[in-house]
Amino acid sequence: MGEALKIDPALRFDDWEEVYKSPSGYWLEDNLDTKTVLSITIFIPEAQEDNLFDSYQW
Fold this sequence. Notes:
The chain is mainly β. 10% of the residues lie in helices and 34% in strands. The protein contains one helix and four strands; from the N terminus they run αββββ. The protein has one helix spanning 2-7; strands at 12-14, 19-22, 26-31, 36-42. The protein has a four-stranded antiparallel beta sheet with strand order 1-2-3-4, with no helix packed on it. Strand 1 (12-14) and strand 2 (19-22) form a beta hairpin. The longest helix is centred in the first third of the chain and has 6 residues, at 2-7. It starts with a helix and ends in a 16-residue tail after the last strand. The model has no long low-confidence stretch (mean pLDDT 86).
């Protein structure tokens, strides 16, 4: 994660989800044993706003 944080210093750890979240629209899940990125999830930040989701023209 150290390398990932150097590339994107905006990454923040989310205690609830237990992932690193970027305002750029992706999450990183890390493996503490191997100290590597386990998975990358890419999303549309606006899609997380449930009350606005249906108002967008996808």
